[in-house]
């Protein structure tokens, strides 16, 4: 294993590359993209926090649809209070939004049962809850998913990142801070498709900062890839070579079904001076 050290002023970027021997592969259907669970906490001797959490999780699937795909709520009092946020991807149907939210709450209960800070990423929705308020507080922790061997045409690579940079700049000013776009490349009619979205509790300025930071953090990972996705705490980006967005039925009928596996990269951007550690 080789370790490289780079001193970077003002920003530290950490990448953890995890291999999935059982074949964690992308498919154009709704699926779990990643999760983060805090250490299990057994201090809730009376079970009040867990009771509040169950009430909260049971309320999300219906309320997120009624609130146009984004819903935040608080259940409980003082030390047993639970804060939660759920966001559905802007192009999916109401039933897909509700179904994805329900799946994410089940995953949270099964995989992070005694955790008090939880993030669950699905392709179509995002769930987060905590015993501390995070509403309106932009954070940069993100998960990037890409196929390791799915390199793009070199002549298209130089167009892809500028296209997504433009999308990241424009999305915050759109309704619901959600935007899709198509890149007509210079290579014989080839197209690339992009999407960007932010949670609606942050400002438009923070939305733009969040998307820009994702592109900067994962530039060397996604820059030459044909397909990739980035999921964060407050912003999200998708890039593909087929028209993947529109509605759930369109996603389910898409032709892409890769057989090779992907890797999961967790990146955190911090405003400090430090070194970058990259492991190979």
TrEMBL record:
Pfam families xrefs: Stress-antifung
Keywords assigned: Membrane, Repeat, Signal, Transmembrane, Transmembrane helix
Residues that span the membrane, as ranges: 6-26
Domain Gnk2-homologous positions: 30-134, 138-244
InterPro entries in the cross-refs: GNK2, GNK2_sf
Gene3D superfamilies, alphabetized: Gnk2 domain, C-X8-C-X2-C motif (3.30.430.20)
Highest taxon of source: Eukaryota
PANTHER family: CYSTEINE-RICH REPEAT SECRETORY PROTEIN, OS03G0564600 PROTEIN
Protein name, entry field: Gnk2-homologous domain-containing protein
Source organism of the structure: Psophocarpus tetragonolobus (Winged bean)
């Amino acid at each position: 294993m080789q370790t490289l050290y780079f001193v970077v002023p003002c920003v530290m970027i950490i990448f953890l590359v995890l291999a999935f021997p059982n074949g964690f592969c992308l498919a154009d259907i709704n699926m779990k993209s990643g999760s983060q669970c805090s250490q299990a906490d057994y201090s809730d001797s009376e079970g009040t926090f867990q009771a509040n959490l169950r009430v909260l999780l049971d309320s999300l699937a219906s309320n997120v649809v009624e609130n146009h795909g984004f819903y935040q709520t608080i259940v409980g009092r003082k030390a047993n209070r639970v804060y939660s946020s759920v966001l559905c991807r802007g192009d999916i149907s109401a039933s897909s939004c509700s179904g994805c939210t329900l799946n994410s709450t089940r995953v949270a209960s099964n995989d992070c049962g005694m955790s008090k800070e939880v993030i669950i990423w699905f392709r179509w929705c995002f769930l987060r809850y905590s015993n501390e308020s995070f509403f309106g507080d932009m954070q940069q922790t993100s998960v990037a998913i890409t196929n390791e061997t799915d390199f793009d045409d070199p002549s298209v690579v130089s167009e892809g990142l500028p296209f997504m940079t433009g999308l990241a700049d424009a999305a915050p000013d759109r309704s619901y801070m959600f935007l899709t776009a198509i890149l007509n490349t210079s290579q014989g009619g080839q197209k690339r498709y992009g999407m960007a979205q932010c949670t609606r509790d942050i400002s438009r300025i923070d939305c733009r900062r969040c998307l820009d930071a994702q592109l900067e953090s994962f530039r060397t990972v996604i820059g030459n890839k044909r397909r990739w996705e980035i999921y964060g705490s407050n912003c999200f980006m998708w890039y593909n070579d087929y028209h993947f967005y529109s509605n759930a039925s369109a996603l389910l009928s898409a032709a892409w079904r890769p057989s090779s596996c992907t890797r999961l990269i967790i990146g955190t951007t911090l405003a400090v001076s430090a070194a970058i550690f990259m492991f190979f």
